[in-house]
Amino acid sequence: MNDIVSRYLEQFVAAGPDAGAAPPWLREQRDAAMAQLRKHGFPGPRDEDWRYTPLKPLAGKAWETAATGAADIGGIDDRLIAGLDSHRLVFIDGVFSSDLSTTALAQEGISVRPLSVVLREDAGALPDTIRGGIDARDGFQALNIAFARDGYVVDIASDSKPDKTLECLFIAATAGKAGQTRNVVRLGEHASASLVERHVSLDGVDALVNCGSRLLLGAGSSLDYHLVQTMDSGVNMISDTEADLGADATLRILTATLGGAVVRNNLQVRLNAPGGHCDMLGLYAATGRQHVDNHTGVIHVAPHCTSRELYKGVLDQRARGVFHGRIRVDRGAQKTDATQANNNLLLSANAEIDTKPQLEIYADDVKCAHGATVGQLDETALFYLRSRGISADDARSLLTFAFVNEVLSEIGVDALAEYLGEGLARRLIQHG
Amino acid sequence: MLSIKNLKASVEDKAILNGIDLEVGAGEVHAIMGPNGSGKSTLAGVLAGREGYDITDGSVTYRGMDLLDMDPEIRAREGVFLAFQYPVEIPGVTNMYLLKAAVNAVRKHRGEAELDAMDFLKLIKEKAALVEMKQEFLYRSVNEGFSGGEKKRNEILQMALLEPTLSILDETDSGLDIDALRVVAEGVNKLRSPDRAIVVVTHYQRLLDYIVPDRVHVLAGGRIIQSGGKELAQELEQKGYGWIEDQAAA
Predict the structure, then answer these.
(1) DSSP string across A125-153
(2) ipTM over cut 0.85
(3) A77, pLDDT greater than 80
């Protein structure tokens, strides 16, 4: 794949410095990231973290990062979630579109802006963790840092709460393009917010989405974060989310994957101070030859924190799933309470799941539990439903839906839960 | 209404039913009794369309239709109901949802309008009262965490809602205390009518004190070896199954 890296390098040089005046630290970051990519390249099949996921769709060609100026895709009405009253930023191929977004928020203590605007007008406002030296875990993140020119920056001041759900809608619209974005969400002390990050695409587009998000939760703050992937079957995606929680902060994070070709989600949560709690929820429904890979990790740095992880997946036809859940409990993190579960339903003999829990515990007074299951629909339950007049197809959908409902019912944004429920039902009936 | 002729069925090459002949007319209640392993539950399962049985011979005609040729859901929509010996727990599906889906599937099949939420709620409250089921059970997952008696009541509630033409009760009395037995039997008796038939499959006679049958059949070795009136059930209760099996073997 060396020639792919050289082609990215050509693109990098051709793009020149950022439009407008990019701050020097960012130029340095981009150069360093590009250097890292040249040195180490993309991950290969021998990397333990990538053993089960095909790299060719992600790194087999040099996707072109969209230039500034969002492509015109007409309207977005048919891509909105019914009943979701949100403040919305829209990005086309990773580039902010002010035309399609709602007007700026005028609520005190709440700032929701595109990264391109922040870099141009207010780069000093970005947190140190963004402005510091780069720490790209792999080639895809390096690529993201080298090329991303947009994304969202959310700042919620202490004791503040947006009066609406915040929604960031990313649309892959142009074949062959890479939408590369960097996002930051920062909550002050006792602030709270609910955010929905959605990825969709135009029909039939083959594209790459490569995004990185940093979530910074101040003491006592609370964030409901939803990553929703419903792209068409030609879109490959890598998401990389890192969260840092302060004392008594609560993060509830959902990763829902209903679409895409090869999708890889990295999620890392660090509980840095006592009293922190995170719920990590996952939902994936894959069919055809879709591939969904969730690599999750929670690091208990501080004592008296709790984490709970529940990922549920339904795989049909030749779909493949990967779940890797790591719980690390550091030496000082006594009284940790961590649970993890990954349950899978295979609807076809050709579907496959590789699930792997990994516990690293360096403290001696902790509670950690994990479990993984793989199963099929219960035949006796199917017969029971059919014997009550419900058709075989409906009975299968109903049981599948019941399986994922445990996750759906925990989603705090009702309109989103309904949207996902309908999306799941459609997928399951279509392929049932 | 139901005509079974020389029905033979096997499970994994083991013959379970060895030529059953049975005629059940409209308005009648038939009891099928027999020792464990006689084929009672297999007969009930075959009639409802459970998978896993090979029908090797014979026929079953229900209201002029070839029952064995129908999918389980079509049988249900045509008015066949099986009350399960072991009702299935379905986590994540509320009882209410199942009941509404079932009622509307049957109504749609009959060409009737589907019930809306309000009409359904009214109907279900009425029927739940009939089997003395608390409202909270309607909103819980189907049979999940229900006691044995609650599960059986739930079966009868479904039966009351679907108003089947042919009901098959498979060991509905097993695991019931006397109060639950009475409630369940009352629910069944309310459904008795000149145009409906009920087949009660049971090991013991006690249920038949409450649901009084017109005919009693003794099943042994996959065959009906004796038929009679309700007094046959009492005789079985006193003498056990041994004498009748000996008589049939002689």
Answers:
(1) GS-HHHHS----SSHHHHHHHHH--B-EE
(2) yes
(3) yes
Find residue B53's DSSP bridge partners.
none
Q: Does A70 touch chain B (CB under 8 A)?
A: no
* pLDDT of res. A431: 46
Distance from C-alpha of B224 to C-alpha of B218, rounded to nearest angstrom: 5
Tell me the three state secondary structure of residue A196.
Answer: strand
Chain A residue with CA closest to B82: the answer is A387
Closest by Cβ to B73, choosing from A380, A386, A401:
A386
DSSP one-letter string for A391-409:
-HHHHHHHHHHHHHHHHHT
pLDDT in tens, A238-260: 999 999 999 999 999 999 999 99
Q: Does A362 touch chain B (CB under 8 A)?
A: no
From B83's Cα to the closest Cα of chain A, the distance in A is 9
Segment (H or E) for A321: strand A320-329
Q: Delimit the domains of chain B by residue range.
A: 2-249
Condensed to tens digits (0 to 9), the pLDDT of residues A35-45 reads 999 999 999 98
- The shortest C-alpha distance from B15 to chain A (Å) reads 22
In chain B, residues with a C-beta closer than 8 Å to the C-beta of A381 are 88-90
Least confidently predicted of A366-370, B49-53, B172-176, B221-225: B172-176
| A/B interface, count of CB pairs below 8 Å | 75
C-alpha separations of B243 from B41, B148, B203 in Å: 22, 32, 16
Q: Are A114 and A96 in contact (CB under 8 A)?
A: yes
Beta carbons of B51 and A383 less than 8 Å apart: yes
Chain B hits for A385, CB-CB cut-off 8 Å, are 90, 98
Q: How do residues B145-201 score in pLDDT, each as one tens digit? A: 999 889 999 999 999 999 999 999 999 988 888 888 998 899 899 999 999 999 999
B88 touches chain A (CB under 8 A): yes
- CA–CA distances in Å: residue B75 to residues A86, A388, A391, B79: 48, 9, 11, 6
Of B93, B119, B92, the closest CA to residue B104 belongs to B119
- The domain limits of chain A are 2-431
> Does residue A351 contact residue A318 with C-beta atoms inside 8 Å?
yes
d(CA A93, CA A97): 10
The answer to whether A102 and A87 have CB atoms below 8 angstroms apart is yes
Architecture of domain B2-249: 3-Layer(aba) Sandwich (3.40)
Q: Work out the angle at residue B184's Cα, subtended by the Cα atoms of residues B179 and B187, and round it to the nearest 5 degrees.
A: 130
CA distance A178 to B220: 72
CA distance A321 to chain B (A): 23
> Does residue B169 belong to the interface with chain A, where contact is any CB pair within 8 Å?
no
Whether A121 has its CB under 8 Å from any CB of chain B: the answer is no
Task: Report the half-sphere exposure of A182 (CA within 13 A, side-chain side).
Answer: 25
Inter-chain CB proximity A398 and B91 less than 8 Å: no
Tell me if residue B160 falls in helix, strand or coil. helix
**Cβ–Cβ < 8 Å for A241, A223:** no
Residue B59 exposed, middle or buried by CB count within 10 Å (0-12, 13-18, 19+): middle
Q: Which of B196, B244, B206 is nearest to B81 (CA)?
A: B196
pLDDT band for A67, please (50, 70, 90 cuts): confident
